[in-house]
Amino acid sequence: MHPSLNAKSLRPMEARLVPELPKAGRWQFEPKWDGFRCLAFKKNGRVELIAKSGKPLTRYFPEVAAALAAFEPARFVLDGELLVPEGRHLSFDALQARLHPAASRIAKLSRQTPALYMLFDLLMDADGTSFLARPLVERRGALEAFFAEARGGATLRLSPMSRRPADAKAWLARAGRGALDGVIAKPLDEPYRLGERAMLKVKCLRTADCVVGGFRYETGGDRVGSLLLGLYDGQGRLDHVGFTSAIADDEREALTRKLEKLRGGPGFTGDAPGGPSRWSTARSSEWVPLKPKLVAEVRYDQVTANRFRHGTKFLRWRPDKAPAQCTFDQLVREARPAELVRRALS
């Protein structure tokens, strides 16, 4: 196997969030599925499923591993998305429920809510040939031929794609309603760039995966009031970027216990709450630092000076994401006034 295709070290190509579909260039458009990104490795008939964080997923999705083991080729490396459909929608909650330590529970869920593996890239074929350096236009053709010959059954699906912007706009119009999460735009003539944000993603909502670097208690209470959010900068420092207080009241006690078990960490190692800024309040220094273990996906509106301008809405926990992957390059930044003036005068 090519050294770059090692299951322990390979990191998938990622996407950068942008506000709209590209207007120029050669692109392939695909639906953005609301699931767990997953690389599938098969060698000598043995299958490994690896999350984008590098964590193994094989034991949590035995039906997918079994389907890939039954896939005709004896070896390959595939890139795709693990999904759990419920009716005509995709259920992220059902997907998260799989990350459970009990084997009996996993076996039961795999029968009750079987997962799908949506394929969208081929990194190594049955002959052991690496496709990393090939342009997407070649990789997609090879993936379609591979899928047609392998006859993988109902568990494995081939993701739709189009090179027509009109189709991408139609997909985007349907996104955010329980079927699609948005649209991915992939450069048609580019190779597969390991670990780089070399694709574009367009979503109806602006979202970011953030590390919970600390929390504040409710005023005058002993339950969590808000989560303090952080992103890593280019030097690996965790900067405070904002907060979310949109926590369901009936979940606060359990969440408080969970957070208190993570006390004693460094918290924010870069910009921290309490520093001088226009966001500072009398309570800015009253926060509890945590070990950087939890990742939360939040919705935000605008970013100014590397901070969420307003409070964010908590969407869900992301146990499939490694904290180190929560970096600033996810954000759509607002153009600063000086830049707007420069553009107007140019």
Can you characterise this structure?
The chain folds into two domains: 3-202, 2-Layer Sandwich (D-amino Acid Aminotransferase, Chain A, domain 1), CATH 3.30.470.30; 207-330, Nucleic acid-binding proteins (OB fold (Dihydrolipoamide Acetyltransferase, E2P)), CATH 2.40.50.140. It is an alpha+beta fold and 346 residues long. The chain starts with 13 loop residues before the first strand and ends with a helix. Strands 12, 13, 14, 15, 16 and 19 form a six-stranded antiparallel sheet that branches. Strands 4-3-5-8-9 form a five-stranded mixed sheet. It has a four-stranded mixed sheet with strand order 1-11-10-2. The longest helix is centred in the middle third of the chain and has 15 residues, at 136-150. 19% of the residues lie in helices and 30% in strands. It is globular and about 65 Å long. Mean pLDDT is 86; it is low at 275-284 and 334-346. It contains seven helices and 19 strands.
- CATH architecture title of the largest domain: 2-Layer Sandwich
Helix proportion of residues, in percent?
Answer: 10-25%
Order of helices and strands: EEEEHEEEHHEHEHEEEEEHEEEEEH
Whole-number mean pLDDT: 86
CATH structural fold name of the largest domain: D-amino Acid Aminotransferase, Chain A, domain 1
Unreliable stretches, pLDDT < 50, 5 or more residues? 275-284, 334-346
- Cα(first) to Cα(last) distance is 52 Å
Q: Strand-residue fraction?
A: 25-35%
Number of helices: 7
Give the overall shape, derived from the CA principal axes. globular
Largest sheet descriptor: 6 strands, antiparallel
- Return the structural class: alpha+beta
